[in-house]
């Protein structure tokens, strides 16, 4: 790696970041099977129960970034992410938040609220991977933690894939349970616009740009590792 090389232009750097999508968990064999209608109800339930741990970590991760961030303008925007997941209204309306929507997804696949929230189905590998993300956000400079959220660049497609394939592949799942995926598409786009602007502004030397790519790879590895652990916990 030539870290003394001239920095990439903003466009080149963004293209390098986007190119990392080739390692996104959309390509993981478990995800390919899931969106291809090949998963059993037990495997779908296992995925939903394990992914709930990621959902529950996200607002804590965003609070860690806020607590490290000395830039008021960033904090004003970033705080919305916590409310997106935790909600900011009663527990029935559209402002009930992502964790509530994921709980409804759980109920739609046959997992009661108490069972989901007990975390008793969470595999150790999933727990370690999610905790690694949270711990990174607690310790890293806030711009690096922002960069690690950029896997969301690739998330709208995975949500759209589920919305397109699940109703036909898994007719036993109440379609209202898929609202979480629908809700995330515009939010992910907004998050990426902000996270990408922070990243392109902050990582300005070639060595820093390379560091940003390594951080994004670390986050891709977290998502991939989660599916490895889920696949192992719910074999064919
Ligand atoms: O379903 C998915 O595959 C997926 C992936 C990701 C991601 O790429 O990190 C997120 C989400 N969903 C998601 O729903 C979400 O709210 C979210 C927040 C973040 C983040 O890093 O701050 N990633 C993701």
UniProtKB/TrEMBL annotation:
<dbReference type="Pfam" id="PF03070">
    <property type="entry name" value="TENA_THI-4"/>
</dbReference>
<feature type="domain" description="Thiaminase-2/PQQC">
    <location>
        <begin position="15"/>
        <end position="228"/>
    </location>
</feature>
<comment type="pathway">
    <text>Cofactor biosynthesis; pyrroloquinoline quinone biosynthesis.</text>
</comment>
<protein>
    <recommendedName>
        <fullName>Pyrroloquinoline-quinone synthase</fullName>
        <ecNumber>1.3.3.11</ecNumber>
    </recommendedName>
</protein>
<dbReference type="GO" id="GO:0033732">
    <property type="term" value="F:pyrroloquinoline-quinone synthase activity"/>
</dbReference>
<dbReference type="InterPro" id="IPR011845">
    <property type="entry name" value="PqqC"/>
</dbReference>
<keyword id="KW-0560">Oxidoreductase</keyword>
<comment type="function">
    <text>Ring cyclization and eight-electron oxidation of 3a-(2-amino-2-carboxyethyl)-4,5-dioxo-4,5,6,7,8,9-hexahydroquinoline-7,9-dicarboxylic-acid to PQQ.</text>
</comment>
<keyword id="KW-0884">PQQ biosynthesis</keyword>
<dbReference type="InterPro" id="IPR004305">
    <property type="entry name" value="Thiaminase-2/PQQC"/>
</dbReference>
<dbReference type="GO" id="GO:0018189">
    <property type="term" value="P:pyrroloquinoline quinone biosynthetic process"/>
</dbReference>
<dbReference type="InterPro" id="IPR016084">
    <property type="entry name" value="Haem_Oase-like_multi-hlx"/>
</dbReference>
<dbReference type="InterPro" id="IPR039068">
    <property type="entry name" value="PqqC-like"/>
</dbReference>
<comment type="similarity">
    <text>Belongs to the PqqC family.</text>
</comment>
């Amino acid at each position: 790696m030539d870290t003394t090389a001239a920095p990439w232009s903003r466009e080149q750097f963004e293209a390098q970041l986007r190119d990392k999508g080739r390692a996104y968990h959309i390509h993981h064999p478990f995800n390919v099977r899931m969106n291809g209608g090949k998963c059993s109800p037990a495997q779908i339930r296992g995925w939903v129960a394990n992914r709930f741990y990621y959902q529950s970590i996200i607002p804590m991760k965003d609070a860690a970034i806020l607590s490290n961030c000395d830039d008021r303008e960033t904090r004003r925007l970033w705080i919305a992410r916590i409310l997106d997941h935790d909600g900011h209204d009663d527990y029935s309306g559209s402002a009930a938040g992502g964790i509530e929507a994921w709980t409804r997804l759980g109920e739609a696949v046959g997992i009661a609220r108490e069972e989901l929230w007990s975390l008793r189905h969470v595999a150790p590998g999933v727990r370690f991977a999610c905790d690694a993300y949270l711990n990174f956000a607690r310790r890293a400079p806030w711009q690096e933690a922002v960069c690690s959220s950029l896997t969301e660049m690739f998330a709208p497609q995975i949500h759209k894939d589920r919305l397109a394939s699940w109703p036909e592949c898994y007719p036993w799942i109440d379609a209202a349970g898929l609202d979480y995926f629908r809700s995330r598409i515009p939010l992910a786009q907004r998050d990426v616009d902000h996270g990408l602007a922070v990243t392109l502004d902050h990582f300005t030397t070639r060595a820093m740009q390379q560091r940003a790519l390594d951080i994004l790879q670390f986050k891709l590895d977290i998502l991939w590792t989660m599916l490895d652990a889920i696949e192992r916990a719910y074999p064919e």
